[in-house]
Amino acid sequence: MSSSIASRSIGILLPLVVSLIVSGVVLLVIGKNPLDVFSLIATESFGNARRIAATLSAATPLLFTAVATAVCFRSGVFNVGVEGAFLVGGLAAVFLGFTLPAAWGFALFPICFFAAALIGAIWLYVPGILLAKFEVDEVVSTLMLNFIAVAITGYLVNGPLLSPLSGNNVTPLIHEVAYLPRLMPPSTLHAGFLIGLVCVAAYGFWCRYTPAGFEGGLIGLNQRFSRAVGISVPRTIVGVMILSGVIAGIGGAAHGMGQMHRFSDGFSPGYGFTGMAVALLGRNHPIGIVLGAILFGALASAGTTIQLFSNIPLDLVNIIQGTVMIFAVVELGRISLRRKKGTANAG
Amino acid sequence: MQVEQILVSTLILTTPILLAAIGGLVNRQAGIVNIGLEAKMLSGAFVAVIVSSATQSWFIACLAAALSSAVIGWMFSLTITRAHANMIVAGLGLNILVAGVLGFILSWVYKTSGTLRQPDVVLLPDVLPEFFEKIPVIGPALSSLDPLTIFAWITVFCLPFVLTNTRIGLWIRATGNAPHVTRAVGLRSLAIQDASTAFAGFFAGLAGAHLALASLGLFNEGLTAGRGFIALAAFYFGRDRPIQTAMACLLFGFLDTTQIRLQTAGFPPKLIGMTPYLMVLLALIFTSVRAQRKAQL
After folding, report:
1. What is the reported pLDDT for A89?
2. Does A140 touch chain B (CB under 8 A)?
3. What is the domain count for chain B?
4. Which positions ≥6 away from A222 have C-beta within 8 Å?
5. Distance CA B192, CA B235 (A)
6. pLDDT of residue A17
7. What is the DSSP string of B66-96?
8. Any transmembrane segments, and where (chain A) (predicted)?
């Protein structure tokens, strides 16, 4: 028992430790003291209220994309299409946010969020049903759908939905009544962060206390057993894909209505993939997800300042993110297990 | 737009996709879906530009690009085969990691962001003598053949034989299709998988070298522009068979060529750009539905 707890905490810490080592080595190579840089990152991202707000603001979209990823990953469904659902959901919300009459006032919030959730759900329902019904590999289908989402939204913001007032690649601004309220006015931290926290909490509740969440976790652990106890695996797969799409869509809406106030070509600089890193780092656990999102939010918000002041390229953040993703899925526990088995067989 | 021009640019634009797809399909035959092709193409392009500028030899540049990407591929393979990393997530992570490392090197070492220009980069030479250009229709395409394009197509036409009739080919296919059997007959299936991923890295590196050295002579962070994923689309579309995959690559190269022309004719370029991905989705659905029908009969 104690050894399993130990190996679990190693599993959680490993990607962090490795990425710290990798980035530390990189910093040493370029002649910077890693400890100085890390403490600079810490003060830049958590030093005072304004910086904390900036960090949480950067963490906001990641809360949604991480939960959307975790919902599927814990069921063993490798949905990498959260990025696409985030984009189409965001565009749907923004589109309604500037086409519906501004006079509708606060009614715009539920309408926009609902539309985003619906579009996101439909977007991921497609690969979900394809996987459940026809065993179409979900990794490839969702990966392809990401590119299709980028193409469609890119086409729309450069064509039919292009703002007549400003230059390229952007839609008009949404009505001001549809702006999500800012929580700490000078900073961009907006109510979307709270919605994100609610999503994480709801996800945690869903995992622990609802039959659907339990079944989702179970088919991730053992599909044959789940089938044997009467869980419909195809239905659960479609269910988690739809849920993932709903959350990703809401995330896109929150980002569009709280942060950007419009849709542009670079609406998501890979939030879907960073969210994947967050979900993996947090081992699909709600608290882990919140901490992971804040960590990556801190890196993103501090990264720019670090580049400005100490001349360290912002790409360091990507190096850390890539390392975290690779080592989050490395299973050291299974290496030793296999060796033991091997020796047992040999003996 | 003349037929000759379409042929020339289709041929040139197909080569990087084809090279990457060759590696990817062999890798997938051995049971590994290589999502990290994009990363290895990018690093290959970078190495090719640096080495070409330093050595004044396109050949050494291509070799260095291929070998460096093969090493990256091999290390990437170790995380999958030995440390049981999920190959999809690790592949996506590798793409981000390599892009980060290259971006870091660009801004720290070369003090530039995005694009790297080096002095005296030697481009890939034309192989056939000039008088081939006089041949009608296919002449310009023949005279613009570069060594990597020829190498890619020779490999494509040799691969079916290698995969079906040689020991190594059978090992690779057995590893992907029946890992238990492979292990039971005493083959080191993990080592075979590692070798196939290194092979995929080798070809992805060449693909990157072609992107950088075919006509541009410079490195750019967005040089690959998703071609690693188009290659993935191609070998999924061609169901890991060399000739079919090559045909898919030609089709995607042709789409790439026409994209620019259709744009001037008023078609939205973004929507044309998504055709390969849409085609793969449809092909996946089609093959899966058909396989299921067969299973039911």
Report:
1. 96
2. yes
3. 1
4. none
5. 20
6. 85
7. HHHHHHHHHHHHHHHHTT---HHHHHHHHHH
8. 12-31, 51-73, 80-100, 106-126, 138-157, 189-207, 228-254, 266-282, 289-310, 316-333
Residue A321 lies in a domain: no
Cα dist. B28→A26, B175, B193, B238 in Å? 33, 10, 9, 12
The CATH number linked to B197 is 1.10.3470
**Domain region containing B212:** 3-124+146-296
Q: Looking at residue A65, what is its pLDDT?
A: 96
Q: Is the residue at B271 inside a domain?
A: yes
Domain count, chain A: 1
B69: closest CA of chain A, how far (Å): 17
Which neighbouring-strand residues pair with B220? B115
- Tell if the CB–CB gap between B281 and A135 is shorter than 8 Å: no
Any domain includes A13: no
* Residue spans of chain B under pLDDT 70: 1, 263, 297
Give Cβ neighbours of residue A161 (< 8 Å, ≥ 6 apart). Answer: A91, A95, A171, A263
Q: Do A155 and B270 touch (CB under 8 A)?
A: yes
Per-residue pLDDT tens digits for A71-112: 999 998 989 999 999 999 999 999 999 888 888 888 889 999
Residues of A in contact with B256 (CB under 8 A): none
Residue B132 lies in a domain: no
- Residue A141 in any domain: the answer is yes
Q: Angle CA(A329)–CA(A335)–CA(A339) in degrees, nearest 5?
A: 165
CA distance B77 to B80: 5
Of A275, A240, A339, the residue nearest A58 (C-alpha): A275
pLDDT of the residue at A345: 35
Where does the pLDDT of residue A7 fall: very low under 50, low under 70, confident under 90, or very high at 90 and above?
low
What is the distance between the alpha carbons of residues A212 and A207, in angstroms, rounded to a whole number?
Answer: 8
When scoring B86, B239, B280 by the number of chain A Cβ atoms within 10 A, the one with the most, hence best to mutate, is B86
